[in-house]
């Protein structure tokens, strides 16, 4: 039966840290992309509502 020594475990720690770092970076980028998609959608909806509001205000001011 083979036992894993401490030096073997110590050599894998930098590899695990590197993989964890890449995983975190990938997760962070995916979150940013999702946020930007949602932000774009919300900005478009807000712009449409503002356009409707401006149109209604122009109609009211022209009636007076």
Relevant terms:
64 residues, mainly alpha
Q: Taking all residues together, what is the mean pLDDT?
A: 92
- The tally of strands reads 0
CA distance, first residue to last residue: 94 Å
- The helix content, as a percent range, equals over 70%
**Count of alpha and pi helical runs:** 1
Low-confidence stretches: none
Output the helix-strand order. H
Principal-axis shape = rod-shaped
Q: Report the portion of residues in β strands.
A: under 5%
- Oligomeric status: single chain
The SS-based structural class is: mainly alpha
Largest sheet: none
Q: Specify Rg, calculated over alpha carbons.
A: 28 Å
What does this structure look like?
With 64 residues, the protein is an all-alpha fold. The protein has a domain at 38-64. Helix content is 91%, strand content 0%. It has 1 helix and no strands. It has one helix at residues 6-63. The protein is rod-shaped, with a radius of gyration of 28 Å. The protein starts with 5 loop residues before the first helix and ends with a helix. It comes from Brevibacillus borstelensis AK1. This is DUF4083 domain-containing protein. Keywords: Membrane, Transmembrane, Transmembrane helix. The chain crosses the membrane at residues 12-36.
